[in-house]
Amino acid sequence: MKKIEAIIRKSKFDDVKKALHEIGVNFFSYWDVTGVGNETQGHVYRGVAYSTTDIQRRKISVVVSDEFLEKTVQAILDAAYTGSVGDGKIFVSTVEEAYRIRTKERGTLSLA
């Protein structure tokens, strides 16, 4: 099993959520997060300068079977893409075991 963590633009969250549902990923967790990016220039909006060093993003976490990894990552890549700096990052790590508390199922059965 693999854990996929994606940090994306908040504006692309609905697109990513829809893309995940379309491929059959119906459960994932998400959080609003703030991070510091590589962009060092400030921006001016209506005559007011503001810093872009603190970036508002959304973090998505989903655990999938090994066979479903590439399909899930590709769905996130396609849906979150704008082509601009700050599109985000995806991290993949190995999950040793998963348990469903209600039924005590373990392994990939607990993901369904």
The sequence of SSEs as H and E is: EHEEEEHE
Instruction: Let me know the average pLDDT.
Output: 88
Give the strand order of the largest sheet, numbering strands 1, 2, ... along the chain. 2-5-1-6
State Rg. 17 Å
Secondary structure layout plus pairing:
Layout: E1 2-9, H1 13-22, E2 29-36, E3 43-45, E4 48-50, E5 54-64, H2 69-80, E6 88-94
Antiparallel strand pairs: 1-5, 1-6, 2-5, 3-4
Helix pairs in contact: 1-2
Protein architecture, described:
This protein is an alpha+beta fold. Helix content is 20%, strand content 36%. The chain contains two helices and six strands. The chain has a four-stranded antiparallel sheet, covered by helices on one side. The chain has a two-stranded antiparallel sheet with strand order 3-4. Helix 1 packs antiparallel against helix 2. The chain is elongated, with a radius of gyration of 17 Å. The mean pLDDT is 88.
